[in-house]
Each structure stands twice: as C-alpha cells, then as structure tokens.
Amino acid sequence: MHRGKGMKFVGDSRIPAERKPNIPKDYSEYPGKTEAFWPNFLLKEWLVGAVFLIGFLVLTVVHAPPLERMADPTDTGYIPLPDWYFLFLYQLLKYEFAAGNFTVVGAMIMPGIAFGALLLAPFLDSGPERRPYRRPIAVGMMILAVGAATYLTWESVATHDWEAAAKQGEIKKEAEIDTSAEEYKIYQEQTCISCHGDNMQGGAAGPSLVDNGLSPEEIAKIAVEGKGNMPKGVFKGSDEELEKLSKYLSEVKSK
C-alpha cells in the first residue's frame, strides 16, 4: 500500500490559511455613513468624555461648593433649594397648574410624559439617517426637552431670593446648651425653639441668641413688646419665668 492511498484531506473555509492582524474593514465606500467601532468611534467617545471630565474637575476646584449650617428640623421657616440639575422641576412646581392640589401633575405626570417621550424617541424615529434635518421627530423632541429644562432652570435662578437664602444657610455660632436646665424648659414651653432653634442658633424666622450682647432687661422687654418679626405678647409665662429666661439668654455664649 502506498502512503496516502485511500486518504482524503478536508479543509475548513472558516479557518484562514494565513494569520492576519485585526484590521477594521474599509468603509471608504460609505463616506459619512458609518465607521469602525474600534478604535475610531470609541476613541472619539473617550476623547470627548475626557474633555468634559477635565472641565468638570476644573470647575470644582475653581468654584468650591458653598457650605451651609447643619439641617435643623425645628426651623420651620427654612426654604430648601435643590441642586442645579433639579431646579427646572423645582420651578415647575411653582406654577398653579403644577402646584397645590395639582402637585402630582407637576411632580410625576408631566416629568413622566417628558422622560417617557425621550425614551420612545429611538423607536418613533428609527431611520438610518444621522443628519439632524432628516430626523425631525427625534431632533424636535430633544430641542423641546432641552429648551424647557433650560428655561425653567433660568427662571428658578432669576426669581430665587438669594439674599434670604444666604441668611438661611449661614453658619451660626453654636453654644453648649444644658437642655436639662429649668430655664431651657421655659424656653421650650414658650415656643421660642420654633424660631430660634433648639440650640439657639437662630433660623429664617428668628435671629441667633448666641452672643446676643443684650442685657436681661433688654431681652425681657423684647419678649413682652416684640421686635422685628417677633410680635407683641409672644411670652405667656409669669414674671418670675421671664426674669429667669432673660438672665439665662443674656449669658448664652459660643463655644
């Protein structure tokens, strides 16, 4: 028997005879239509992302975020302000058709419709065209969304009382308060805590009582006759309680 007689060799066309480097296909026949995902498209995405990331990091270094005082649940006059990326929703809830009895409309229904429409945009306009004027539905919905968010954000910034907000969030001097003292019990019973805070640090409705520089007589007079936002006759206790509280508040010092 001769070598190789009766034997057949079968080749698989899926296996190349020569190993070639991983070179992307030539898309020159389709200019402007598509490109190789790796490395062309992915490299562009990385470069754009890097530019925005570096810009964001520079802004955080140049403009440090403002710090406010610690949250005080007893300060009922404080008006919170959301972060900038929620300002458009904050402004939307100021309008009559989205506030009050219609809060659910502004907080859930309208944003739900808007974001739902953006999610459906690829399915409503699934054409292969990449030029904006050839995709009117998707482009129109995006312009409407960006325009509405930009306008509402601008309105929120323009109409917000920044001076009052700065006073609300101002870091106050703190004092070591003995909450078990008799005078502090009087302070609580006379509802002083609702305007001046549980640590007497003050709030939007009342000033800080720490280092107030007032004499007991001056404090007693203000408690009876009122001053500024404090109306007359707020103090309802006895003369003895007023004397104790006035002396106590005149001695409140910062740490």
Automatic annotation (TrEMBL):
Domain Cytochrome c: 164-253
Family: Belongs to the cytochrome b family.
SUPFAM superfamilies xref list: a domain/subunit of cytochrome bc1 complex (Ubiquinol-cytochrome c reductase) (SSF81648), Cytochrome c (SSF46626)
Protein name (record): Menaquinol:cytochrome c reductase cytochrome c subunit
Subunit structure: The main subunits of the menaquinol:cytochrome c complex are a Rieske-type iron-sulfur protein (QcrA), a cytochrome b (QcrB) and a cytochrome c (QcrC).
Keyword Nucleus: no
InterPro entries in the cross-refs: Cyt_b/b6_C, Cyt_b/b6_C_sf, Cyt_c-like_dom, Cyt_c-like_dom_sf, Cytb/b6-like_sf, Cytochrome_c550/c551-like, MenaQ_cyt_c_Rdtase_cyt_b/c-su
Localisation: Membrane
Keyword Amino-acid biosynthesis (UniProt): no
Pfam families: Cytochrom_B_C, Cytochrome_CBB3
Entry's Gene Ontology molecular function annotations: electron transfer activity; heme binding; iron ion binding; oxidoreductase activity
Topology relative to the membrane: Multi-pass membrane protein
Keyword entries, A-Z: Electron transport, Heme, Iron, Membrane, Metal-binding, Transmembrane, Transmembrane helix, Transport
Transmembrane annotation, as ranges: 46-64, 99-124, 136-154
GO cellular component, one term: membrane
